[in-house]
Amino acid sequence: MREIEKLFDRIVQRVNINLRELEYDVNPYVQDLIPFNQMVKFYGFYGISPHHPLNFKFRHSNLAGSYFLGRCRVSNSLLYKSDIRGDELKKKGDLFQFNDYEIPVVDNEEIHVEDSFLIKTLVHNFSHDPESLERFFIKDTISMNYANIHGAPCDGCFLGVFATVDLTTMRDCVIGNFSYVQAGEISHLNIPPGTVWVRNPGEFNFYYQFPEPRLNDYVYFGAGLPPQGKIIDFVEDRKEAFQRVFDVVNIEQTIPVPSSASLDRYSVTRGLTTIGDNVLVAQRAYLQNAWLGKGANVQENCFIINSRLEGNDVTAHGAKIIEADLGVMVFVGFNSFVRGRPENRLTIGENSIVMPHTIIDITEQLTIPPNHLVWGLIENEEDLETNSIAIEELSKVDTRLAMGNMFFEGNGAAFVEAFQHRILHILEANGAFFNGAEKKGHAQKNQYISFNTIQPYPEGAKKGIFPTIVIQP
Amino acid sequence: MREIEKLFDRIVQRVNINLRELEYDVNPYVQDLIPFNQMVKFYGFYGISPHHPLNFKFRHSNLAGSYFLGRCRVSNSLLYKSDIRGDELKKKGDLFQFNDYEIPVVDNEEIHVEDSFLIKTLVHNFSHDPESLERFFIKDTISMNYANIHGAPCDGCFLGVFATVDLTTMRDCVIGNFSYVQAGEISHLNIPPGTVWVRNPGEFNFYYQFPEPRLNDYVYFGAGLPPQGKIIDFVEDRKEAFQRVFDVVNIEQTIPVPSSASLDRYSVTRGLTTIGDNVLVAQRAYLQNAWLGKGANVQENCFIINSRLEGNDVTAHGAKIIEADLGVMVFVGFNSFVRGRPENRLTIGENSIVMPHTIIDITEQLTIPPNHLVWGLIENEEDLETNSIAIEELSKVDTRLAMGNMFFEGNGAAFVEAFQHRILHILEANGAFFNGAEKKGHAQKNQYISFNTIQPYPEGAKKGIFPTIVIQP
User: Fold this and answer.
1) CB contact under 8 A, B450 and A462
2) What is the average per-residue pLDDT within A431-442?
3) CATH 3.30.565.10 at B3-235+449-471, yes or no
4) N or C: which end of chain B has fewer CB atoms below 10 A?
5) Which residue of chain B is at minimal alpha-carbon distance from A251?
6) pLDDT band, very low/low/confident/very high, at A1 (cuts 50, 70, 90)
7) Which candidate, A436, A410, A408, A441, places its Cα nearest to that of A424?
8) Which CATH class is domain A3-234+450-471?
9) How many other C-beta atoms can be found within 10 angstroms of the C-beta atom of residue A473?
10) Tell me, what's the pLDDT at B1?
């Protein structure tokens, strides 16, 4: 048996051992999902720049089609078309604030991926675990297509298709397809598909459950079958468009990009697309007739099609915006699927928040008013009524609130404030507020990245395994 | 001042200090020769395969456009479009035969390039220095365009344009343009341009001196000017053809290649080119209407244009063959320029040896008979008479022989035998004698190489400097 197959078997076994209490067997989901010949076919790549930390250590792994930035270490793992962004990690000397604690960071934080299999997964941000400040670990974990592991150390976990864990440390958990979890610290939980759960213990708890049959239309992943559903189809249909950006070494820029903005060379641009000042477009983003106002960002695996973003809009990792007009400061959370129609466009008013993992898919015109929070599955006006609330109104809640499949308890103002604070932080990190001299963020820093490619052994017993690679300043 | 400029100044100073006794100042030759912006522009690349040793360590260097294979270490150096092939090095446990000594090799040999500036230089083979078995060093050395450093450790040296040092350890030497030196061990020598010198102390000594004005027509390099001459023009005229092979990630093969042969993806193929069994075509080789018979090889920086090589022909690093027909087992040495004309072709009979650094440039038809040795500058029949000898006749010489600008002393048979032995070794190493199962060489092993690209910091103080890169099995 070749080494890459042994590695695969070993990872599957380790995850299953971790999940034994949940009686969860990952085998039927991952067997034959990515044929081994696909893992030999694609090159991996890493970025070098004067504005990003640099420390890559890759050992005994397959990194096909994966992208690395910053400080990350990968060993005994299979990373298929994944993005490991170690560019927002904590630095030696930082002070980490956790409740009343101020904990000194004694070393530069690194992302450590060990004994794991990540498929088209995005790993980003710093670990928010006060117990492990210097090591953002992803260990004995399998994550499926378009999962996001965002500031979330994982040990012994399985993440389904389009699952997101955000600022949460988890051990021995299963996160269902299209579920979003931001919960601080969890262990030994099996989160069902389509759960959106945001909690800050002692402060608030937001919980939404997608109706299963309706969610299955959009995202479904059963044992022995590849992922299915409308969102999968949407992404697959546009896969070919990325072929060329990976096939050429130097790519010409086809549209004007202001000197304060950056359009990643691994993104795709089609039609009449306009990039404003301070705009960030990340790798694997897809723009088609997109109008991006000052300070808007379009993160990894995002699609903006026939849409206008007025400015300072956040399109978080994996979000899709189609046939829509967004006012300023609209936040569209992770993996949200937000689709109007050419003849029936969607409008989202300024300062509104589309919660992570929201599906808005309309066939009649729909307007989300300014300063609203929306969540769940919205296909028409009626859905909107039970799946949205004015931010001001939510701020007044101090006990509990139930609307449709959503249940909220705790302090509404704290929830709103946490979200708004985070949106400002995201805009800041991405360079939306750059004034020509100060407040540089990714939009300005990412202009100066050069990319190096890496490939595995092309033949022999180690076929598909990459050599040991160490890259340092 | 940027780091890359400091590095340049430091290398120039170190070489000048080494060459102080010769009163040689390299400054006027190398200043502004390669603008620093060129050094930021091109990626370097290295090969990974199951058939080659692997140990790369690159530190504080620029590696623009350079290629690496095998075991090599580069520090504090500028390597511009150079090839460092550490795939024919000695292995731990080998026994190195030197005269009556049998010296054990205690570690895998590595090429160490330190504090050096190599421009379009080829480094290959193992060091033949019995004093330094495990370290093939290139230190405090500058080499110019199309120099070859072949199994030849160098310390404190300057190699001119198209200069070759072969199986020779040198310290504090200047090797003039288009000079070839194979002399065992030399120090504190200033070899004038156009010298071809092959000696085995106590056995034989071959010495040829190109007539200076006639050589200058072909290769000239004066202080403050870029290299000039017909051979430089010839190469420059074909530079554009290589653009595409470096611009795309995966290149399609346009002509059939037998399963026992290899055509490097960084070579250029034009017109009706035929590749026979066991043929090796290396990176940066250029083929145009080339017919390559079984076991022929075309090494780095070689050009084969409108020519036929019957089989088992060696085209050594940098040799060019144009409008010529070569019988079987013809050897064309390093950097030779062998040009017939469309209406007046050149014929070279079987088993003939074209000495390294030979220029054959005819305007009337010319035939070099089989089993002959030719050298120097040959533009017509008359030149051929004073620049060739039947190998059988040379074998009979046991005192001395003078013909034109050539002087030979010693044992002719030993000289011929050394050459023939080496040609067989080259064919063997390149896989010419592969029988489908045994006697694999580069032609068979090079089919399974994947290439990784590396780039320098694109901006900032370290602009042009590559990060520290370590690649191991």
Assistant:
1) no
2) 96
3) no
4) N
5) B247
6) low
7) A441
8) mainly beta
9) 13
10) 60
